[in-house]
Design brief:
49% of the residues lie in helices and 15% in strands. The protein has 102 residues and is α+β, with helices and mostly antiparallel strands. It has six helices and three strands. It has one domain: Anticodon-binding domain (Rossmann fold, 3-Layer(aba) Sandwich), CATH 3.40.50.800.
Length: 102
């Protein structure tokens, strides 16, 4: 986790690591309150597979306003991408560049 944050910071991207013990829902709320444009999910499964999951919070908020089917929302996971670990900085930069939060 710290290596990913260090990599982002070295590339000029502001990054925090959530150190609390709360579950994913609380962590996402924390990121939302901090007005983070993106969240990087890097758990044991992602580490083992060499991937990262990145949530575009702006896109997720915009799409949430249009949700009519909660089951489809959970299946489609709008605003969320999975990328090779080596593409972390490029994907996060792309999200930030398109974000209304600067």
């Amino acid at each position: 986790y710290l290596a990913a944050a260090t990599e982002l910071r070295a590339a000029g991207v502001a990054a925090e690591v959530y150190l609390g013990r709360a579950g994913m829902k609380a962590q996402m709320k924390y990121a939302d309150r901090r007005r983070a444009p993106a969240v990087v999910i890097l758990g044991g499964d992602e580490l083992a597979a060499g991937i990262v999951t990145i949530k575009d919070l702006d896109a997720g908020r915009a799409m949430a306003a249009q949700v009519s089917d909660n089951a489809a929302w959970k299946t489609d996971r709008p605003g969320q991408v999975t990328a090779p670990r080596g593409d972390l900085v490029a994907v996060v930069r792309g999200i930030i560049e398109g974000s209304s939060i600067k």
